[in-house]
Amino acid sequence: MPLFMDIHVVEDEAFDEIAAMKGHHKDIAVQSKFGVTSLKYFLNLSEKKVFCLLDAPNKKACENVHLAAHGIGACNVIELSSEIDFKVFLGEGAKDENDMALTLTGEIDTGYRSIIMICPVFFEDIQVHVLDKLYSFIETYEGKRIALPEAGILVSFVNPSQSIAAVKAIRECLDTFKDKLEYNLALVTGKPVDEKGNELFEEAKRALVSINDLGTTRTIHIDSVTLELAGKIAKQQESIGTNVRKLTSTDLAFYAKLWNIFNEQIQNADFTSVQLSFELGLSKTQSYRKIKALTEMAPNQLIREMRLRRSLRTLKNNNKTVAEIAYEFGFNSPTYFTRVFRKRYKILPTEFAKLANMA
Question: Strand 181-190's sheet: what is its strand order?
Fold first, then answer.
């Protein structure tokens, strides 16, 4: 049978381990009626959230168990489309005699994970060498790599402090190659199941994608949750070094909004900073200040940068011509596109495409 995972947000201020255990026992008492087997549950007391792992015939059966046991269903239930992904994110550790998930060190497993996304772009034939180094750092700091269909490396950590140490080592490694590569690097902590969504760590993964798509290159972007969990935010930021940008929940929401707008408009040759401000619901001045503070680019600069980043990705991943890509991403002519691409990346689009196809 397929695996499912749900999320329960508990409003009782007195909620504790005993209450979680009793609730789980209520589920077990009725689960056989619906063909469900409760495997274990992850408990985050500080956030008052419980995540149950279930073996069930379908999503409705999972919902029925909680309705029968508690009179109220879970906030959300998702089917785990890949058991491999589940094992990488959450499969480590055991459980106690009451099925509460434990980490490898025997602590309560909250289910929350600190996740790094690394998006390197190579301008010389050094990809294999660099990736071998990065994978070594990931293993050293006990990270688990998750397969991605697109370019980029996704790594999950149980321990936030380990994720911060890893991201520091990764950045130092990448910086040694200077003009031979460029990268975007982000670290956020998220919950396995969101109140809305259909995938494991969907909200966290979406945040990472938007940050790496829009964020300043050669900079560590790290959310405040990770820093708080690791303890002493100022000390953690100082330990990472320079070029670190701490992101609040407000920052993450703005990144998400920006990213959605660019996804819809980036192929529109007439898309300008005026329209971007309108889409954001901000005045031109407000839009400029917020975008500049978050990305270090003015709105018009960001629009051109996004066109170039998307063209870079397209050159790497398919066989379209330079002219086709230029027009697809809103450049007025292939000649102009080639000129700004070479100025930005110090390489011709055709040369980059040839190099990318060799990797």
Answer: 144-146, 153-157, 113-122, 181-190, 220-223, 244-247
233, 270: one domain: no
Residues 118 and 163: beta-carbon distance below 8 Å = no
307 vs 267: CA distance, rounded Å:
8
User: What number is the average pLDDT over the span 206-215?
Assistant: 95
SS3 108: strand
Domain boundary among 247, 279, 311: 247
Q: What is the pLDDT of residues 248-305, one digit of tens each?
A: 999 999 999 999 999 999 999 999 999 999 999 999 999 999 999 999 999 999 999 9
Q: DSSP code of 100?
A: B
Query: 223 with 271, same domain?
Result: no
Q: How far, in whole angstroms, is CA 62 from its chain's centroid?
A: 27
What amino acid is encoded at 107 in this protein?
E
Is the model's pTM score more than 0.85?
Answer: yes
Residue ranges making up the domain that contains 43: 3-81
Domain of 272: which CATH number?
A: 1.10.10.60
**Do residue 316 and residue 231 come from a single domain?**
no
Domain shared by 300 and 329, yes or no: yes
Name residues whose C-beta falls within 8 Å of residue 6's C-beta, 6 or more positions apart in sequence. 51, 52, 54, 62, 66, 74, 75, 76, 77, 78, 193
Q: Is the dihedral of CA 323, 325, 326, 330 positive or negative?
A: positive
Q: Mean of the pLDDT values across residues 18-37?
A: 96
**Tokens standing for residue 212:** 């790496």
Provide the number of structural domains found in the chain. Answer: 3
For residue 234, the surrounding DSSP H or E stretch is: helix 233-240
Q: Are strands 220-223 and 181-190 parallel, antiparallel or unpaired?
A: parallel
On whether residue 88 sits in a domain, the answer given is no
Are 117 and 237 part of one and the same domain? yes
pLDDT tens track for 58-92: 999 999 999 999 999 889 999 997 666 788 888 77
